[in-house]
Write a structure and sequence with these properties.
There is one protein chain. This protein has about 110 residues and is an all-alpha fold. Helix content is about 70%, strand content about 0%. The protein is flat, with a radius of gyration of 19 Å.
Amino acid sequence: MAGGSRVGMKLLTVVIGIPVGRATKRLVDKTWVAARPGDPPRETHDTKVRLSDAVGWAALSAAGVAIAEIVTRRGAEASYRSIFRGDPPPPKPTKAEKKAQKKLEKAAS
């Protein structure tokens, strides 16, 4: 690492994530309106919302969040490389990755 840090990466992720999140929200809303005219069912606990609409909105929203996370992380990594002239720190391992690593270590010993 040529001078950056985890804090630098976190800052870049926030700076890039805010506009990506806003753009994603607009895109998800426009996609819903194009597919099913009318407002999306944001209040899914409302008894007037059909189950198929609630499930469709949930799936579309989840896809938007997943894509936004990928775009944000890759954008932050690219910015980190150009600013700090080095590779960004790796993301922290998930609980599942930690558990798998422990199993591998236990099996190797």
